[in-house]
């Protein structure tokens, strides 16, 4: 019998893409409510990072979501920090790698929710997903997300909510998302494109500490025309 077929390679796995999520509290709230998060919490815009404007945000804030343009310099710096032995990460940090194309917005939502599971009204599909993946590695969490039709459907609900026409799923997007949350007394930046979470040091107030960290991130950009946005997860504004 010929052994020629023994050298045939398995077909390459096709990359999964989702339609990019608009940086909009309405879109993000559509996602989390579809997942099963209770309506007593929700996302709201952060209009500025100065103390006076931060005081207008519904509190307590559980996490921040930051939208920013790609920067090779910033990305390399973050990768170096994330991989450093000096970057001490609590085992209680919930982190998932991003393997789905254009899903960074919903990835930031997962990081915001995943690191606040004990304090948020979580049930339904998102509670089921967390129960399934909480003990898995960041890569295995991502693999489970790729197979989860309910999570994909919740993302799709939010992606259809944007005020602008949604691009195709495999379109090249111009911005990226990360999330900020406090775990075991330290502030973390959670970016699924990084090797792991980035410990930004001790903190007690995610809104104030996250705002300082985001200001530091923004300082990497010299172009004043560059657009950023910050969205906070806290009490629902409808309550």
UniProtKB/TrEMBL annotation:
Enzyme Commission number, as recorded: 3.4.19.12
Domain UCH catalytic as annotated: residue spans: 17-235
Keywords: Hydrolase, Protease, Thiol protease, Ubl conjugation pathway
Active site: 104 (nucleophile), 176 (proton donor)
One cellular-component annotation, GO: cytoplasm
Recorded GO MF terms: cysteine-type deubiquitinase activity
Site location (Important for enzyme activity): 191
UniProt catalytic activity: Thiol-dependent hydrolysis of ester, thioester, amide, peptide and isopeptide bonds formed by the C-terminal Gly of ubiquitin (a 76-residue protein attached to proteins as an intracellular targeting signal)
GO biological process, one term: protein deubiquitination
Coiled coil regions in record: none
Record site: Transition state stabilizer: 98
Catalytic EC class: hydrolase
UniProt keyword Transit peptide, yes or no: no
InterPro entries: Papain-like_cys_pep_sf, Peptidase_C12_UCH, Peptidase_C12_UCH_sf
PANTHER family attached to this UniProt entry: UBIQUITIN CARBOXYL-TERMINAL HYDROLASE
Family note: Belongs to the peptidase C12 family.
Protein name in UniProt: Ubiquitin carboxyl-terminal hydrolase
Species this chain originates from: Coemansia spiralis
Source lineage: Eukaryota, Fungi, Fungi incertae sedis, Zoopagomycota, Kickxellomycotina
